[in-house]
Amino acid sequence: MGVEQVVHMNGGEGEHSYYKNSLYQKYVILKTRPILEEAVAQLCRERLPEDCLRMVDVGCSSGPNTLLPLWEIIETIDSTCNKLNQKAPAIQFFLNDLPRNDFNTVFRSLLPNFYDKLEKFDKLGPCVVAAMPGSFYGRLFPDNSLHFVHSSYSLHYLSQVPAGLVSESGMPLNKGNICLANASPSSVHKAYVGQFEKDFTSFLSWRSLEMVSGGRMVLTIMGRSAHNAACKYESEILQSISNALKEMVDEGKVEESKLDSYNFPIYEPSAQDVRQLIQRDGSFNITRFEEYEVSWDANMEDGNEELVFDKWARGRYVSNYMRAVTEPMLASQFGSAIMDDLFDRVSSKYANYLEKEKGLYYNLVITMVKK
């Protein structure tokens, strides 16, 4: 089964859906808000079209966060145009993700209320939201049609599992790991780096064609740190899933060959990786580049700071959102029947890890302007 069929969040609004388990991603979007507002305000001052402002959120997924960046953008457009005594244009906003994304939940459960809230902006032009299914590593829009591109936590997903993870004799080279890890052979590292370079270069190339000169782009990417060992590889959070699967292999619940041959299509780049590729493409000027760490269990209280959580609640919180994100990929390889057992084990592993260590993500936020 191809990556495009399995790289999507759990749909619907059930217990294990991304809709119900995306508070961490909400935290990341809110933390990045000042940078997003700054980029939108600069666009309004320097390159605001008179008729229609066209924007896209690539890798939008489906859940309560899907329209959150758009709301932040609209508030900034409204306030900036009022300060400039300038008429706000119509807004055409596209939600992009792979075709298997649950767009139905977005348009059925979220959009009606969103349009109702827009009524408070009496000076804002018409706002139209539409879906744009397709890979953001390929063509999505006509040339010179976009003014603003936003993406949060999408570009660490690869367009495919890297080639070269199997030897000439057919032996898996990343045996014992389901992702790039410290123990992975150098050839596996090279394969993952090469696939990310290919994909990110393609992303920049297509967006450079689709965006107008002076258009802005804000990207938030889950990355890795060369300075903090806790954020050096994505293995710490994904390796817990791998270790749980190894236990299930030992118990005869998972076939060893399925584990040995499985690899996530995920690569978390370093700041240097991203800078070099943007500079090599040459179509964009970097106007801001930020790096920051976030704990695995960030925002589990979601504004209720009086709540107290023990290690088991923290582990369950992390396990729930990891399940919402990874279950479609894992189920395609190992089947749906083991998912409850698998993530019960993973929850315990996260709880024990967080009791002793800091679970951290390393994030990169880049603002660019099209030359």
UniProtKB/TrEMBL annotation:
Keywords: Magnesium, Metal-binding, Methyltransferase, Transferase. The keyword Magnesium applies. It comes from the Eukaryota. Gene3D superfamilies: Methyltransferase, alpha-helical capping domain, Vaccinia Virus protein VP39. Pfam families: Methyltransf_7. InterPro entries: MeTrfase_7 (IPR005299), MeTrfase_capping (IPR042086), SAM-dependent_MTases_sf (IPR029063). Coiled coil: none annotated. GO terms for biological process: methylation. PANTHER family: S-ADENOSYL-L-METHIONINE:CARBOXYL METHYLTRANSFERASE FAMILY PROTEIN. This is Uncharacterized protein. It comes from Turnera subulata.
